[in-house]
Amino acid sequence: MTTTPIRSTVEANTTVKHEVKDLSLAPLGKQRIEWAGREMPVLRQIRDRFAAEKPLAGIRIAACCHVTSETANLAIALKASGADAVLIASNPLSTQDDVAACLVADYGIPVFAIKGEDNATYHRHVEIALDHRPNIIIDDGSDVTTSLVLHRAHQLPEIIGTTEETTTGLVRLNAMFKDGKLTFPAIAVNDAETKHFFDNRYGTGQSTLDGIIRATNILLAGKVIVVAGYGWCGKGAALRARGMGANVIVTEINPVKAIEAVMDGFRVLPMAEAASIGDIFITVTGNKHVIRGEHFAQMKDGAIVCNSGHFDLEIDLVALNEQSVSNSFVRNSTQEYKLKSGKSVIVLGEGRLVNLAAAEGHPASVMDMSFANQALACEFLVKNQGKLHAGVISIPYDIDQEIARLKLQAIGITIDTLTDDQITYMNSWTVGT
Question: What would you give as a GO molecular function for this chain, any one (predicted)?
Fold first, then answer.
C-alpha cells in the first residue's frame, strides 16, 4: 500500500488537534457535507433537538467510522449534543480528505484520518482515540473496542458503552462476550431494522456496483457476477447486479440463505464451481479467505475480484501474490495481477471496501437512518447508564420505530393507524373465528 505522508498543518486560528491531509481542502469538504445533509432529514431533526437539549453534555466520545460526508453530519450532530468527540477513520482507503479538513477547520472537531494511511498510522490513530479516554465508543468493525479491552483495561471503568455499525464488529463483540471480556453494554446498531434493511441492502447494493463501475468502466449487462454471501449486503448486491442485466450466481454456507437465494431466482453454487464461470466476484460475508488460491487458479483470464465486507481478509491476497509474477495498477483502484499461468486477475480497491475505496460509499439517504441510530444509541446509553447489562444488546424497538416515522414524515408519506377496535383485537386472545 502506498503511504501518504502525514501533514498536520494548523492554521493560526485553529487549535484543534488533528492529522488530516491538508486543511486548505476544507471549502470543498464543506460543499460535500452540506450536499449530503440535504438527504439526511432525520439526522438533521435529531441534531436540532440535541442542540436545544444537550443530552450528551460532557460525554467523551471516540468515533471510529468511515470519514465521509455522511459521517461528518453525524459528527456535527454529536458536537451539537454537547459531546466531546474525536473522529478517526475505520478504514485506510475510505477517508474523504476534504471532509476531514472541513470538520477540523469549520467545525472544530478533532479528526485523525488520511486517505491511504498505512497500517501503522491507522493503529496509532486508534491509540489516539483511546487517549481521549472515551465514555462511549462509536465503532465500525470493533477495532477501538478490541484495543481497549486488550490493552487499556484501566480505562474500562470510564466506559458507559459502545455502539457497533457492522456485522463484522458484532461477530467480534459476541466472541468477546463469550470469552468474558465484554463487561459493558454494546448497542448492536447494525441489527436495527432501520439500519440493516436499508443501509446494508440498498446502500451496499448500489454503492458496491458504483465502485466497480467507477474503477473499471465496464458494462455489467451480460456479465456473470458471483456474489459470495447472501446476507442483507449480499442480497442488495445480487439484486442490483441483476437489475443491471448481469447473470448472478450466489455462493453460501448457510442452507437457509441458500434456499432464499434460489427462491429469489438466483443460481447457487459452491465457490469451487463458480470460480471458473464468473466474470466479476463480490465478497460480502464478513469472513476470511472466501476467495482463495485454488479459486484464483480456476478463474478466467481477466476476472475481476472485489470485496464489500468490512475487512480486507475476504480475498486471500497473500495467496494471489504467491501465484503471481507481477502486479500493477492499470487504473485508479484497479490492480492487475499477472499469474504464473499466464492469466491475469484484477483486484479492485486493494481488496478493501470497494464502495468506499473506489466510490463514495452509501448514499446519504440511507446513512441518514443508520447515523440516526448511532446518535440515539449514544443518548440511550447515557440515559440508562448503570441500568443496562453487559454484552450485545439491541436498539430499543421504540427508537427504531421513531427513526422510521421521522423518515416517512420527512419524505411526505403517511400510513394508516390502528382503530380502537383493531387495538382491542390485537391484544385479545378470546376473539376468534
Answer: adenosylhomocysteinase activity
